[in-house]
């Protein structure tokens, strides 16, 4: 027994430090599990019981996912499934925590020692000491000689993440080519977005779009779609008119606008926020979420912020009555670049 351990267990005084008394570590009486084998086995079973209860909580969470309907309510607006999820997650995670605390309190060595601080270095000798400390911790915790606790803890921790697999399953598959397909198509008229207020559709004539103006636009007939809000999340467009002399037009997209009138997706290519701020003087579109900035004069290329690609352009034209219409759908997927982007063949343009 070292002098420091002796001080910790018997409370004898250490030498004064800088003129101040050094009382060491207070006397700590032994626990019942330190000397009674039956009590030690009982404590071990109790800890294992908490780990087993954690596994039951995990199984209950997974059972609730399939057994309880997401639509059923209890006690007013509380969803039964959500309540069962909460119970399962609380039991699964809380029981692991209680079991570990109980293990530390009743079975792990609790002898306190006082050690002098020393410089931390990375010599081989220090590494050997660190390894010795780890081995000592393994021995004192009893994890090597208590297979019941070790195995139930490993099983509980291994099962705890399983509910996340079910939750991630609800995210659904990657969108694939779904974002290629919006309500825009050949001849679909551009309609002013009513902003959630239902009224008669207001079609837009080319002569109504003056230089410097900007319109929030949706496709004709969107309110008749099965899921209009979902469709709007893909098809929302910003329409602007700029002096044609200020536009640096790609020859391949020369026919995509009408006398300086251009239309671009309103959905930011970073994380999908609505790009709703148009700076008339600079011809910049700004996303308010993370400040991605797009230059309309350069086909909405990114000039600032985290977005990685330009806003997709909607090819537009004028029909026989002078109304602005789409030539076809967007040539590339709208929204965030979370997956590989495959642009439609240029031959369609």
UniProtKB/TrEMBL annotation:
Q: Does the keyword Membrane apply?
A: yes
Entry's transmembrane regions: 47-68, 80-104, 148-168
Keywords in alphabetical order, please. Answer: 2Fe-2S, Cell membrane, Disulfide bond, Electron transport, Iron, Iron-sulfur, Membrane, Metal-binding, Oxidoreductase, Respiratory chain, Transmembrane, Transmembrane helix, Transport
PROSITE patterns per UniProt: RIESKE
Q: Where is the composition biased (Basic and acidic residues)?
A: 1-13
Q: Which InterPro entries match?
A: QcrA_N, Rieske_2Fe-2S, Rieske_2Fe-2S_sf, Rieske_Fe-S_prot
Primary location: membrane
Q: Which SUPFAM superfamilies match?
A: ISP domain
Q: What does this protein do?
A: Iron-sulfur subunit of the cytochrome bc1 complex, an essential component of the respiratory electron transport chain required for ATP synthesis. The bc1 complex catalyzes the oxidation of menaquinol and the reduction of cytochrome c in the respiratory chain. The bc1 complex operates through a Q-cycle mechanism that couples electron transfer to generation of the proton gradient that drives ATP synthesis.
- What name is this protein filed under? Cytochrome bc1 complex Rieske iron-sulfur subunit
């Amino acid at each position: 027994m070292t002098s420091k351990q002796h001080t910790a267990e018997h409370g004898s005084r250490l030498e004064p430090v800088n003129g101040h008394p050094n009382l060491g570590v207070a006397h700590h009486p032994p626990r019942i599990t330190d000397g009674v084998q039956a009590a030690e086995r009982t404590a071990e079973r109790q800890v294992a019981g908490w780990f087993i209860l954690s596994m039951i909580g995990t199984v209950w969470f997974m059972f609730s996912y399939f057994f309880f309907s997401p639509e059923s309510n209890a006690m007013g607006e509380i969803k039964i499934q959500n309540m069962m999820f909460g119970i399962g997650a609380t039991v699964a995670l809380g029981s692991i925590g209680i079991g570990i605390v109980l293990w530390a309190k009743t079975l792990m060595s609790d002898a306190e020692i006082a050690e002098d601080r020393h410089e931390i270095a990375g010599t081989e000798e220090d590494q050997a000491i660190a390894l010795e400390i780890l081995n000592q911790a393994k021995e004192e915790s009893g994890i090597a000689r208590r297979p019941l606790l070790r195995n139930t803890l490993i099983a509980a921790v291994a099962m705890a993440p399983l509910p996340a697999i079910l939750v991630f399953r609800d995210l659904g598959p990657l969108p694939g080519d779904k974002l290629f397909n919006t309500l825009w198509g050949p001849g679909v008229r551009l309609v002013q977005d009513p902003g959630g207020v239902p009224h008669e559709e207001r079609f837009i004539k080319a002569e109504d779009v003056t230089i410097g103006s900007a319109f929030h636009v949706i496709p004709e007939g969107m309110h008749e779609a099965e899921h209009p809000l979902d469709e709007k999340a893909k098809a929302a467009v910003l329409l602007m008119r700029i002096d044609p002399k200020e536009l640096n037009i790609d020859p391949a997209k020369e026919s995509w606008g009408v006398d300086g009138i251009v239309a671009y997706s309103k959905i930011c290519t970073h994380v999908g926020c609505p790009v709703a701020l148009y700076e008339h003087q600079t011809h910049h579109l700004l996303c308010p979420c993370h400040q991605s900035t797009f230059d309309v004069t350069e086909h909405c290329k990114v000039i600032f912020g985290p977005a990685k690609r330009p806003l997709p352009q909607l090819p537009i034209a004028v029909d026989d009555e002078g109304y602005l219409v789409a030539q076809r759908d967007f040539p590339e997927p709208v929204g965030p670049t979370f997956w590989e982007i495959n642009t439609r063949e240029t031959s369609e343009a």
